[in-house]
Specification:
The structure holds two protein chains of two kinds. By secondary structure, chain A is mainly α. Helix content of chain A is 44%, strand content 10%. Classes of the chains: A mainly alpha, B alpha/beta.
Chain lengths: 525, 309
């Protein structure tokens, strides 16, 4: 096969994967595309590895192994085709070309590998993870960042367009497009997402795939593998005319057309060079490039080492500081502090506060998928350790009893898969009733909004001074927050859910006896 | 025709009519084919028991004088069932889907140009529409489900004469259409003991919390001053007798096989309350509704048609 066509194939595949993943993040439901999207979701390197560990070596978390093997065979095609943030960067690069003067459009070989820097970042990321903090993963992982950007900006845009269309059609009494509730993320989260998109955008317009070869932990891991890959892009000395076209299209700035050397650690296998070359001067080869040629002059070793050690030390020292800061918060005493849970409520299936914070990479797929919009991004609620990880917020919504959407989409196993029956007995928190601020006690009128919404009747109305007052049966409560959401008191709710740091089993609802026969013999009037 | 002739013929005809109603008239299929002019339609309330939901509805509607009495050709109808919860029909937390389908079909047959169906659900609206079975039933009958999930569908209205609920935001489907048919399901209710026709109207407003905060029973009664449904059809086929309004399992449900129709929202609530096993005077909003002369709580004063099938 002519290697020139590889670029076209890469572009098609990368755009297809980007769109498939985007559909998942936007919440577009399609029975046909779902399995394909899931497949590419499972291939995302870091989420897949975390899933593998979180679910105790689960087969569904083996996608990362597939990627490592692929990289070992033909280099970092993951970065050019499967990584959604990679494709997003390519779009930035393409968009940047429109605004650039012609002479600035081309890339040039960069001798500076920045290996010390990037592997220090990778080392620190791994070290953090090892000590139970995904802080750096949440900030740097390309998939996670793509997710944050999608849910922060692409999904609202999608909902906006969807609703405009829905409202337009409604004028003609066509209701085939369902209007969606707008998801408004907190401002601080939006600012971080904007920061991420700005960083990615500036870096890619300026220097191509610079992010992939400096900050990206997935890129760094694959670099180490690609360095030893079996097939590598190599120059054909006989065919090469030293025209330099290949170097000018190399987004990774890893190809030196003068010395005919390619830095395979940085090469992301985008195949632009094959297409640019008019003489077939490049090809895939099993030959190992000479070690001496592959390594350009290393920067002075001692400063790099120092830098590495410093990063390592800083990382190590800060880990204990980051751990579980919010756990130290004193639980609120009823009556003293108004109301509200002391620590954030984690989604059903997330097993415990610890399991969730140790495995969630804040990709916001659950945030985007939740039909009730009850899962929202936090900021520092989990401490710096769980920076930006999502939580359940019962102020604007509650968790629908029969819905298990978040447990189905989570790529890392931070939220484990649940059937509706399983989910209905998971107690993620317990309702607490504050009689002193309840409508019924203060205004002496019936209310019962909490009990009305309760799916298990853990909140039940009992007779009280001629009225009906809520009463909580804690072991029936699943912590869905329907009571807290429905409670009309202001500014603090008279009933709220206190989170369970370790999720418990709720008492299952008594088995059905079917409807009792009470057919009327006669009308009572 | 002389007097004797008249009497003789009268006897024969009435005997034939009696024979007909005693034999063929009992078969619902034939009964339904009787021209509407023969049905009286002068009842304040029709109560039917002992049949399947659709059969009971057909019979009750026939006694009420047929849907043509309420829906004229070209009018637009809005049907408001209870679709509050994301549970299957056998849990009886939502109105029976077959009943809703039959009503929609009936309205269209009576000449309605369009029939809209909606509820401001408590659980996720799309799941509730789908899993209640109502979405499918309405689609098949030729009606149109309308969303109620966004505030933009609700417009501010004033309620003259109200004691507590002086304003509310009401769904445009109620405001912009000609005929309003209220189809609640009879259920136990944690806050208000029972929920029937009056309470079902909480599903056409946006801010329910205000009602809960400001004397729930009074607000329910107040809202009836804004717009009384043209027809109230109470589904009491499967009745949730405890753990309402959502219920926890089918063990909460009793098979009562009843259906009531009335234009008087208080009367239909009073009669349904009795079927449920409670006294209308004990239900705050029904009692207030009667006091505010929204409807008749004293069933003895009504012309009631009771049918067993």
């Amino acid at each position: 096969m002519n290697l020139r066509h590889l670029k076209k194939i890469r572009i098609v595949v990368s755009l297809a994967v980007l769109l498939l993943l985007l559909f998942v993040f936007l919440g577009v439901e399609s029975k046909v595309l779902q399995p394909v999207s899931d497949f590419f979701l499972r291939l995302q390197l870091i989420p897949s590895f975390i899933r593998f560990m979180a679910l105790f070596f689960a087969v569904s978390g083996l996608g990362f192994l597939l990627i490592l093997l692929l990289t070992l065979l033909i280099g970092r095609v993951y970065c050019s085709s499967i990584c959604p943030l990679g494709t997003l960067q390519d779009m930035f690069i393409a968009a940047g070309r429109w605004f650039k003067k012609k002479k600035h459009r081309k890339f040039a070989y960069s001798a500076n590998q920045k290996n010390i820097f990037r592997y220090s970042v990778l080392g620190a990321t791994i070290l953090f993870w090892f000590f139970g903090s995904l802080f750096l993963v949440n900030l740097l992982d390309p998939y996670s960042n793509f997710g944050k950007i999608s849910v922060s900006f692409f999904q609202p845009a999608y909902i906006f367009i969807n609703n405009k269309l829905a409202f337009f059609l409604e004028r003609f009494h066509i209701y085939s497009i369902a209007p969606l509730e707008v998801k408004t993320l907190p401002l601080n989260v939006l600012l971080v997402s904007a920061g991420i998109i700005a960083t990615i955008g500036i870096m890619s317009v300026w220097r191509g795939r610079l992010f992939c070869n400096t900050l990206c932990p997935a890129g760094s891991i694959l670099s180490l593998v690609a360095h030893k890959s079996i097939y590598k892009i190599t120059f054909d000395d006989a065919a090469c005319t030293l025209c330099g076209k290949c170097e000018r299209v190399c987004k990774a700035e890893c190809l030196n057309s003068r010395t005919k050397v390619i830095d395979h650690q940085r090469c992301i296998s985008c195949f632009n060079c094959f297409t640019a070359c008019s003489n077939n001067g490049l090809f895939y080869s099993r030959l190992k490039p000479l070690a001496a040629e592959a390594k350009p002059k290393a920067p002075p070793a001692n400063t790099g080492k120092r830098q590495f050690l410093l990063t390592l030390a800083a990382g190590t020292l800060s880990v204990p500081l980051l751990k579980k800061t919010s756990l130290a918060k004193v639980l609120s005493e009823p009556g003293l502090v108004p109301t509200g849970t002391a620590s954030p409520i984690t989604p059903p299936g997330s097993i415990s506060y610890e399991h969730f914070t140790n495995n969630c990479i804040a990709c916001y797929l659950c945030v985007g998928a939740c039909p009730k919009n009850v899962i929202v991004p936090s900021f520092f609620d989990y401490g710096l350790n769980g920076f930006m990880q999502p939580k359940l917020d019962y102020h604007k919504s509650f968790c629908n009893f029969d819905c298990v959407k978040c447990t189905e989409v989570c790529p890392t196993g931070a939220i484990t898969k649940q059937t509706p029956e399983q989910k209905q007995t998971i107690q993620i928190g317990v309702a607490r009733f504050m009689q002193e601020s309840c409508i019924v006690t203060i205004d002496r009128t019936d209310c019962g909004a909490c009990s009305e919404h309760c799916p298990t009747k853990a909140v039940n109305m009992v007779d009280w001074e001629g009225l009906r007052l809520p009463e909580v049966t804690p072991d029936l409560c699943v912590g869905c927050g329907a009571c807290e959401y429905a409670c009309p008191t202001e500014p603090y709710k008279a009933i709220y859910v206190e989170s369970n740091l370790v999720h418990l089993d709720a008492r299952p609802i008594e088995e059905s006896e079917g409807p009792q026969q009470q057919i009327l013999d006669d009308f009572p009037f | 025709m002389d007097r004797r002739d008249f009497i003789t013929k009268g006897f024969i005809y009435s005997a034939l009519a009696g024979l007909y109603s005693a034999t063929l008239g009992r078969i619902p299929l034939l009964a339904a084919q009787r021209p509407a002019t023969q049905a009286t339609g002068n009842y304040d309330l029709v109560a039917v028991r002992g049949g399947e939901p659709v059969a009971m509805y057909r019979r009750a509607m026939q006694e009420m004088g047929g849907m043509q009495r309420f829906v004229r050709r070209g009018q637009r109808v809005v049907v408001k069932p209870n679709i509050g919860w994301d549970v299957p029909p056998e849990r009886a937390a939502n109105t029976n889907p077959d009943l809703i389908g039959a009503i929609v079909k009936d309205c269209l047959d009576a000449g309605a140009s369009r029939v809209f169906v909606f509820d401001n659900t408590c659980d996720d609206w799309q799941r509730s529409y789908r899993n209640s079975g109502i979405e499918e039933a309405v689609r098949r009958a030729g009606g149109q489900m309308v969303p109620g999930n966004l505030e933009r569908y609700y417009r501010d209205v004033e309620i003259p004469g109200a004691r507590r609920l002086k304003t509310a935001k009401v769904h445009e489907a109620i405001l912009d259409n000609d005929v309003f048919i209220n189809v609640p399901v009879l259920k136990h209710h944690a806050s208000t003991s029972v929920t029937i026709a009056m309470k079902n109207l909480m599903g056409i407003v946006w801010d329910r919390r205000y009602w809960h905060r400001n004397d729930l029973h009074q607000c329910i009664a107040d809202f009836c001053l804004f717009r009384k449904p043209d027809l109230n059809i109470v589904d009491a086929y499967l009745v949730m007798t405890r753990n309402g309004p959502r219920g926890t399992s089918t063990a909460d449900v009793a098979l009562m096989k009843s259906l009531l129709i009335s234009t008087d929202i208080v009367a239909v609530d009073a009669a349904s309350t009795l079927i449920f096993g409670s006294q209308p005077q004990d239900i705050g909003h029904v009692k207030i509704g009667a006091e505010m002369r929204i409807g008749q709580i004293n069933l003895d004063r009504l012309n009631i048609k009771r049918v067993a099938i």
